[in-house]
Write a structure and sequence with these properties.
By secondary structure, the protein is of the alpha+beta class. 16% of the residues lie in helices and 37% in strands. Strands 1, 2, 3, 4, 5, 6, 7 and 8 form an 8-stranded mixed beta sheet that branches. A 3-stranded antiparallel beta sheet has the order 9-10-11. The N and C termini lie far apart (33 Å).
Amino acid sequence: MVASIPKHPATDEWGSAFTDARMSAVLVLLGDGPAGAEVLLTRRSMQLRSHRGEVSFPGGRIDPGESPIDAALREANEEVGLAPSAVEVVGELRSIGTHVTRSWITPIVARVVAGGDGQPPSLRAHTGEVDRMLWVPLSDLTRPGTFREELWPTPNGVFPIFFFELDDETVWGATARLLHQLLRVAHGIADIEPPAL
């Protein structure tokens, strides 16, 4: 399984938040499924102005006065009805920049906490923002033929763009970069940062 993960780290071509970056946060939510650990992804609504129809993590802009954790939990509640009390924040992945949308994204990693009845929380896609929710086993992301990378020219040079070809969705861009980073953590190739509280 580890052989399916690229050997080199996904270096961030913008290094640190650029001066006009829009600060954002996403929730990398992990749960236990029939095939082991799985991660929650969503497909963005076709009604949205940007990135419509793309697979992403729940998340969005950080409002004034919010921490990245607050923003990630708020956005997950708005997009899929996830109550903040239903998760335990366990850390952060390395923040990344996106050139096209000029965003600086802080990925907050959390795990599902079972309720008093021992059941995981019930989630529902809010169709104004999310068309579909997907719980994707981490093992599916490392199947042969699932991961690929292409070298794309950018104003700052040529950089690898990652893709995960799932059974019925393609994950790419910033989401694929974060999934790649998550898999490196899961296999002990990289570290996860403690939550910034």
